[in-house]
Every structure is written in C-alpha cells, then in structure tokens.
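Severity: low
Component: inverse-folding endpoint
Summary: output formatting inconsistent between runs
Steps to reproduce: submit the following structure tokens with default settings.
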C-alpha cells in the first residue's frame, strides 16, 4: 500500500455519512468512558495529520508529513490491537457510538494484516447494527484491494499520481455494471457523486473557483 493510499482512506471515511440504524440510545451508559476519550483523541490526531497532508498539496506530498502519518498510524494500530485483545470489538456499549466509529477509523488506517483480522469483527458489528453498512463496505474494499482483488463497492481510489488530472480513478470493481445498486443497498451514494466528493476533498481549492 502506498503512502497516498493511506490518505485515500482518510477521505473515503470522511465522505460517508454514517446513518447507523442501531437502536442503541445515544444517551446509553458507556462502560469505559476513558477508553472512549482516548479513541476520540487518537482520531483527532489521525485527522489532523491528514488535513496537514492535503493542505500542503496532495499532488506532491510532503515526505516529512507522510513519515509522521505513518508513525501515527503504526501507534494507533498497536493500540487497537491491544484494545481488541482485551475487550473484543469496542462497540457502543463499551465506548459509545462515536468511540466505536473512532475505532473503525483507526482500523481503516491500519496495515493490511490487521485490517484482515478486524474484518470479521467489523462485519459482525455491522450485522448487529453497531457499525454502518458503509463502514463494512469501506473495510471490505480496503482488504480486497490490498489482496490484489477487485473491490465490491467502489470505495477505494488509486493513488493520486494515477488519477486523470484531478479526476479520481477507482481501483477495479467486480461486476461494475451493478455497483451502484450494491452501493445503494448498503447506504453509499452513486459512484458519480462519490468521485466528485473525492475530488473536492483532495482539491478543496476547486470548490472556491468560480
């Protein structure tokens, strides 16, 4: 996985509106509020470094920022590994809805081996309505692309240097003719909208152009 692919994971996650259908109350008691706070702080750091990367120009990534991003991702992966070892998947009952989403984002930015380990847990959380179908689609596609296989939902774009100008180029998709149907079923926008969201995330200055 290239460094720029790491940033792709960032923007894909941000674009997805998490419409989780879980019936768990937002005001439920949280078993481990301190762990929730830690996860939120780690995501804050995760997002800050990726914002810095984009703001400095994603077409020519700052290598020092990339190095710091990799170090942050590695630290977060090891911490998530320890959390899952102790608690299993950190669901809403343990860390709240936002804490569980934060945990997912850290997994999304982990290495392929850990993502593969987490995929069954994320799928189970999705089936229990503790994570969104969109979350599951993102991680499934990440793993498939990492293994050199076609993705299912079209959430993963190629590195910036392989884009057509500023137009996103997606990784290969299985049965692409029906991908928008699959995306709709799991709560994702059509590919045409998604590509535009990707472009705007990577090149925010374009939104300000008349």
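Observed output (run 2 of 3):
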């Amino acid at each position: 996985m290239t460094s720029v692919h790491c940033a792709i994971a960032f923007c894909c996650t941000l674009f997805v509106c998490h419409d989780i259908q879980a019936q768990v109350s937002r005001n439920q008691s949280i078993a481990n509020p301190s762990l929730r706070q830690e996860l939120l702080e780690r995501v804050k750091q995760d997002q800050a470094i990726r914002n810095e990367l984009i703001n400095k120009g994603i077409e020519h990534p700052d290598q020092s920022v990339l190095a710091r991003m990799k170090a942050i991702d590695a630290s977060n992966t090891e911490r998530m590994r320890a959390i899952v070892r102790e608690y299993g998947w950190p669901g809403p009952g343990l860390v709240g809805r936002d804490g569980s989403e934060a945990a997912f984002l850290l997994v999304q930015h982990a290495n392929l081996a850990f993502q593969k380990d987490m995929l069954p847990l994320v799928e189970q959380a999705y089936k229990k309505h503790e994570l969104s179908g969109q979350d599951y689609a993102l991680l499934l596609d990440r793993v498939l692309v990492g293994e050199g296989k076609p993705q299912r939902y079209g959430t993963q774009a190629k590195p910036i240097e392989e884009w057509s100008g500023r137009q996103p180029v997606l990784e290969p998709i299985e049965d692409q003719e029906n991908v928008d149907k699959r995306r709709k079923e799991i709560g994702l926008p059509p590919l045409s909208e998604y590509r535009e969201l990707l472009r705007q995330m990577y090149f925010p200055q374009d939104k300000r152009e008349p």
